[in-house]
Design brief:
about 325 residues, mainly beta, rod-shaped
């Protein structure tokens, strides 16, 4: 038989040359059973099927696994005969579902077969930021996930293309620091939720230039505080910050100097005696800034301290 063709049948009983009379059956439009596939999508479970000849539409059914058993089939809706896919947005992350489709033409319906079960895993929302040891990747916890796979991609400024996704490994937490990141390189990341063989879909994060945190050194003299730092690859400049001790409390950071990419030294002559200071430096590239670490606190060196350090005792 061919799907979409209307048939009727009859049967005659036989015994040698004798045959019974016969009567035609009711007619029937044969509708082939569709092949159904399901997969996690960014906003639900995508149900897809092949187009069946003779179809006037399709009915979508769903069952879910609850308390150790499958529920009865529930009609989720109908689709026009021109459609071959539908996304079930009413699913809950961590729940196992199965689907089936029946082809419809008037009162005629195809047979049906259940798909295999699928655990729906929502797509993680990924955020990235510069960290003291690399790029920190964080995401929301996904119901039903047993773990997460982290991927990275790098941008080639010459070809203006992103590399293929690189698998950085599986983790059970909701954050990961990519310590292999190279300062001055532009990255983007994505994360897939896992549960056995089931994986969520994924979406690339925003891009970020990783800037290594400058290592700073401070030295107080009689009149100034000398602040120096290491260069960070990819930095277009540096911002020097200062905080001071006020009433036994550190003040907020104040910007003291904006340096270009080649400058790695700042002499702060705006300091006064008997005040305790500390400094930090951030590498910058457009809107991207490195992390920072506060220096040890320093005070101006008094004249007596300077002399005592330089003097030699002769007996």
């Amino acid at each position: 038989v061919k799907s979409g063709v209307q048939y009727k049948y009859t049967v005659r009983a036989c015994n040698g040359s004798f045959k019974s009379l016969y009567k035609a059956s009711a007619s029937l439009i044969y509708l082939a059973q569709p092949t159904v596939k399901i997969a996690n999508a960014s906003n639900g479970i995508k149900v897809s099927w092949n187009k069946v000849a003779g179809s006037k539409g399709y009915t979508v059914y769903r069952s879910q696994y609850t308390n150790g058993a499958w529920t009865s089939w529930k009609v989720m809706g109908t689709a026009k005969n021109t459609k071959t896919s539908w996304v079930d947005k009413s699913v809950t992350s961590g729940t196992t579902y199965q689907y089936t489709i029946r082809v419809v033409n008037g009162n005629y319906k195809s047979t049906y077969k259940a798909t295999s079960g699928l655990i729906y895993l929502a797509q993680p929302t990924v955020k990235i930021a510069n960290d003291s040891n690399g790029v920190k990747v964080s995401w929301n916890q996904i119901a039903g996930a047993k773990g997460y796979t982290v991927y990275s991609a790098t941008y080639d400024a010459k070809t203006k293309k992103w590399s293929s996704w690189k698998n950085l490994g599986d983790v059970s937490t909701t954050s990961f620091v990519d310590e292999s990141a190279l300062s001055g390189t532009t990255y983007q990341y994505t994360v897939r939720a896992l549960n056995g063989n089931y994986k969520s879909t994924y979406k690339a994060s925003a891009s970020l230039i990783y800037l290594a945190e400058p290592v700073i050194t401070v030295k107080a003299t009689e009149n100034t505080v000398n602040v120096s730092w290491t260069k960070s690859a990819g930095a277009a400049g540096y911002i020097v910050y200062r905080a001071e001790m006020q009433n036994d409390t550190w003040s907020n950071w104040s910007i003291m100097y904006n340096a270009d990419s080649e400058t790695i030294l700042f002499d702060d002559d705006g300091v006064v005696n008997d005040v305790e200071y500390r400094y930090t430096v951030r590498a910058v590239n457009d809107k991207t800034k490195s992390t920072y670490t506060a220096s040890e606190s320093v005070k101006l060196v008094t004249e007596s301290e300077e002399k005592s350090e330089d003097s030699t005792v002769i007996e």
